[in-house]
Amino acid sequence: MSSLRLVISKVQSLPRRVLVTGAAGFIGSHLVDRLVGLGREVAGFDNLSSGDKVNLAHAMEDPRFRFIEGDLLDLEATGSALGQSDLVFHLAADPEVRVGAEDPDSHFRQNLLATYKLLEAIRKRATPTKLVFASTSTIYGEPSVIPTPEDYGPLMPISTYGATKLGCEALAASYTQLLPLKVVTFRLANVVGTRARHGVVYDFIMKLREDPRELAVLGDGTQTKSYLHIDDCVDAFLMTLDDKIWRNAVEVYNIGSEDRTNVLTIVKIVTSAMDLKDVAIRTTAKAGGRAWPGDVKTMQLDITRIKRLGWKPKRNSDDAIRLAAEQLIQQLRSR
User: Fold this and answer.
1) Are 94 and 146 in contact (CB under 8 A)?
2) Which of 8, 288, 300, 320 is the Cys-Cys partner for 147 at CB 3.0 to 4.6 Å?
3) H or E segment to which residue 253 belongs
């Protein structure tokens, strides 16, 4: 039986009330759509700092979905949004890795402090809760082992984004000792697809729409990373509707593709999808060829552990990029 069929077969016996933080964002809105489609009663919580209610247009039509505009930093509002939800998907964060070079306070408040407030709301409620936390490959920093397994260490992130996400992981783990809480952490590779408002594919498309003759590429173009399509990403999140993933109080899984691709290859895929030829490429390499301070040049996650439970991506990195580019181009045309 496939992992998705297994999820659907068990869906009636598992928690029906679900909270999604960051529900109006890129990954959050796709997850909301899928959860509602599976019959879950979903509350979506978002301060709309980077998300958009347009992303939830489909879910808004379903009576099983309720949108709550609010900020996780407001403990009272967070507790109210939590309500009776026994399963929480925590996706709210400042999603821009590079913003930390100029505004680290944003990562501290929207990632680490916001997660603390959510955990406090769960603690004050004091009822059994399952928390799914969206972490990131950047917690590994620049590992010497690639593909990088979950037990790699020491963990030394090189960005405030990665550092605060790692802090969130540690906080969530500690709270499992204080109350009836279980935590599954997904360390995500770069996720691409429709509704994205940041990331290399979206950035390239927006730049080329403005000037189809020249493209500025941050870094030297040799940055080589793993990319995951949003559909495969949400399939992984839905694995948490299966009891077998919650074996211990804290579980950590890498989620990504089984290969990697470089930025200059992404340029070729995006320009081809936009039917552009002879685009002049201008790199803006910083020290070491990085795109910005804290940019990890090479990343690929070892996904052996989650594959043992039945999940694997349907697409490799290039195919994920190609499909995302086509979908984003179509989305922008339809506006």
Assistant:
1) no
2) 300
3) strand 250-255
- 306-321: per-residue pLDDT in tens? 999 999 999 999 999 9
- C-alpha angle with apex 185: 179 to 190, nearest 5 degrees? 155
Q: Which of 116, 152, 161, 227 is catalytic?
A: 161
For tokens 């397994």, the residue is 149
Which pairing describes strands 261-262 and 224-225: parallel, antiparallel, or unpaired? antiparallel
pTM of the predicted model as reported, rounded to 2 decimal places: 0.93
pLDDT higher than 60, residue 8:
no
Chain length of the chain: 335
Helices (H), 61-178: 75-82, 104-107, 114-125, 160-175
227 given a catalytic annotation: no
Q: Which helix (H) or strand (E) holds 158?
A: none
CA dist 203 and 208 (Å) reads 9
Asked if residue 195 lies in contact with residue 226, where contact means CB atoms within 8 angstroms, the answer is no
Q: Which among 6, 51, 5, 9 is positioned nearest to 32, based on CA atoms?
A: 51
Specify the amino acid at residue 220: D
Question: Which residues have a Cβ under 8 Å from the Cβ of 315 and sit 6 or more positions away?
Answer: 229, 232, 257, 323
Q: Give the C-alpha separation, 123 to 301, whole Å.
A: 32
Count, in order, helices (H) and strands (E) of the chain: 12, 14
Q: How many CA atoms lie within 13 A of 153 on its CB side?
A: 4
**Residues 133-157: tens digit of each pLDDT:** 999 999 999 999 999 999 999 999 9
Query: Rounded CA gap, 294 and 160, in Å?
Result: 8
